[in-house]
Amino acid sequence: MSSYFTDLAQQYIDGEWRPGTGSWDIIDFNPYDGEKLASITIATVDEVDEAYRAAARAQGEWAATNPYARRAVFEKALRVVEEREQEISEVIVAELGGTRLKAAFELHLAKEFLREAVHLALRPEGRIIPSPVDGKENRVYRVPVGVVGVISPFNFPFLLSLKSVAPALALGNAVVLKPHQNTPIVGGSLVAKIFEEAGLPAGLLNVVITDIAEIGDAFIEHPVPKVISFTGSDKVGRHVSTVCASHFKRSVLELGGNSALVVLDDADLDYAVDAAVFSRFVHQGQVCMAANRVLVDRTVADAFTEKFVAKVKSLKVGDPRDPETVIGPVINSSQAEALTGTVAQALAEGATALVHGTATDNLVEPSVLTDLPADSALLRQEVFGPVVFLVPFDGEEEAVRLVNDTPYGLSGAVHTADVERGVAFAKRIDSGMFHVNDGTVHDEPIVPFGGEKHSGLGRLNGETMLDAFTTMKWISVQHGRSGFPF
Q: What pTM does this model have?
């Protein structure tokens, strides 16, 4: 595993591994034990420019390549991931503090998305549309946008880099990827290495490891990329969207959430508890779809709460390398401090701690809070960690109001013995995704993924990748002769 952190601690530009030329280094730490994994000299604005220029040079020939030949690259990339699965898992555990369970979950989804990219290469289809002009034929072609800039987050960096990189490449584009500075290997250079081994021609995928303190908005302002795919917080997403709009670029934004898991009065409580605990605490709660809030009908609240608290208390917190560990470290000390502050704020506002976890370095134990005042801002914002709010409600109308009372609209779930009651409930929620009798955390390769309100713009996965990473071009052919007024 250590070779990954030594060999891949570089920029990858135009098919070459090379150090950045910045004046400082990004230090890659293991968030569990603080071990220094790698030191990477950052890329400068000049290197961002070189990466985009390399992508632009390589893209034309790639777009003209037979899509069956393009498809072969993704078949090979999938085989590389399958062959290196154990090694990649170790890197995820070390760099992210992800548990064994989380690494397996991320790798499973990553392989599914690579399989979909294999098929996506053949998906673009043209159309012939009738014309009111005699002799005219209207052809509409699906063509690559050209170059795509991808900015990936720290929580599922391997999956969420691949999720944009692979479809964009499969559809004939070139890509420049900027991983999060806390996960430069898993989210960046590891992805490049896999495609390099899969035979992707040089220049089509470039990775720049850098920081906005060095490059500012250069990555999104650069004239080459036509689309920026960003996954991260709504605060940064708003800025990305604004800059893109001012430069006539398309942005695809997968942003934060404040999802609720709702337990109606007829729910299977044991099953709902399992779903709720997973939905909040998978990967320490550092998931955009995580259930920040668990809303429970007051008639079953006592019984549910007792079971929920007992299960949360049973979760093992500790070394992510231990297969028994469910909750490992959060990504860095600032996240840990923010979570401690959130719990303190909730208690100061009058909340009751049914479970009050402590924090040791980046290890943050679970906290279960209830009785938070209805007007608390904490109920309406994203909490990125193992802190959950239990909220009782009286009847479905109040539940719908509470679920929607947030600027976010990403995911959610409802539990009920009546599936159609659950579907009717889901239809009333302002979110891009909602699940009946399941958890809130789901992603599938061919189902549209994305949010409403502050949770994002656009969709990814399946057919929606065509909307994200291709554009339509109208070419008309006049087989006869048009008449002109002068």
A: 0.97
Separation of alpha carbons 190 and 175, rounded Å: 15
Over residues 329-353, the pLDDT tens digits come to 999 999 999 999 999 999 999 999 9
| End-to-end Cα distance, the chain | 73
Which CB contacts under 8 angstroms, 24+ apart, belong to 111-114? 111/78, 111/81, 111/82, 112/444, 112/445, 113/159, 113/162, 113/163, 113/166, 113/167, 113/445, 114/74, 114/77, 114/78, 114/81, 114/162, 114/166
Q: Which of 50, 244, 288, 365 is catalytic?
A: 288
Residue 254 annotated to the active site? yes
Element (H, E) at 424: helix 419-427
Q: How many CB atoms lie within 10 A of CB 451?
A: 27
What is the residue-averaged pLDDT of the chain?
A: 97
Active site residue 288: yes
pLDDT for residue 1 is more than 70: no
CA distances (Å), 318 to each of 31, 304, 322, 324, 435, in order?
A: 12, 26, 8, 9, 30
* Strand runs labelled E in 126-211: 127-129, 136-144, 147-151, 174-178, 205-207
Please report, for residues 4, 160, 206, 242, 335, the alpha-carbon distance to residue 37 in angstroms, rounded to integers and kept in the order given.
Answer: 9, 22, 22, 35, 20
Q: Name the active-site residue from 196, 254, 365, 396.
A: 254
Give the pLDDT confidence of 315-333 residue by residue, as tens digits: 999 999 999 999 999 999 9
Mean of pLDDT values over 457-475: 97
